Amino acid sequence: MKSVTATLRKKRGILNKIFKSKSQTINPIPGLDFHKIQRQIIQASENVNKLRNSSFFSKMRKTILPADTGAKGVHVDASIIGNQAKNTEITALVSKISSDPISSTARVKLVRTMLRDKRDFPLSLYRNLLIQASLTIYLGDITPATLQIAGQTYRLYLEKIISTHKKNLLVVHSKQLKNVNLDVISIKDLIKADEEEDIDENEAMIIQEIKITLKLLEYTDSLDKDTRGNITMSMQLSELDELTSKHRVKSLFGGSDSSKNKHALVVRKTLAALEVIKRIPVLHLFGLKVIAKLQEIDSKLPLPYLMEARVHMQALRILTLRVVMRDITARPALTPTFNKAIVAYHKALKRSSFKNPKLGDITVLAEFAQISYYAYEQRKMLSLANHGVLKILEMGKKAVDVLAPGNRAHLKQQKQIQTALKSMRRFG
To answer: Is residue 281 domain-resident?
Structure first.
């Protein structure tokens, strides 16, 4: 075992060599290309919605589903899962989904069944499973079950990325380790490296993806527990659609207490769901769609804009991780993503009271103060202009000056922002 560990440790520094020489040719890491996965989910949801409006399913199916997809299957009817994981139970569930692709019940049961299946499937199946789990939410069925399944499947997908790459590194790239029990070798030992030994570009990319995926797994440690604890009520996207109608919005101002209570309940359920959605990257686009509806309903309140900022900041967190792990394909998206977050924070701030802040206003002020100092600290990585950072800090100071007198915990933050302002003003 010592010789195996010694062999695995002879790889430090190779990533530097690989990424310096190949920095202009590296493609996005395929396993973690969440934007591509989201596009597939959106396409599948659009196809299901076409079926939703048709009373001739068999006719529409031929139009929507290409004739050459029979062997590999498609996401609309989940046959892509059925063709990879053939057994009686899976086949029956795929048949139910095919007859009613709009209903989430059979699709959720299919994903749950696959989560219990201990067979060794290729990574592509778990990617397809993540799409199936997310599809129920994109179709507007936001329930404790669908959110929990989406989170569990996302975590399983990350775990399978690591286990798949572990086997590739040990079996494919290290012939001398073919007969070693893979389970006794730590993944941390596996990705350690030594400057003296070169590896090829493929192995360098695998090591990079493992490191990023391990960190993403850490982000999901409490996801399942938090979902179980916080999501207790189901909601449908159609409930928000009702609130955005002109008739419904008017009723909020002249309507009964029951209509106002229903409005408050729908918004509360939506905000709870968004706290989970923002932690699953493949649900971000859906989350922003939901937030846009909230902003239409409550355009004068800061909370919908605060939620938008939080989703963008979560995306920025993942991008930053990838950059730190030398994934250069993530760098171009850093500044635009931060800019989206700061614009949303500004909108939330404009709708908050500085003179007599309520609890919701205090939350917005505190987060903006925090993000203003973050902008100062990370201005080089985010490629922010000095005058832009200065404006953000000045607004951050106004926010923290409101908070500090009532809460001593903000005094340190206030001093940090003041120091940062002095530093930036020296640069003009």
So the answer is: no
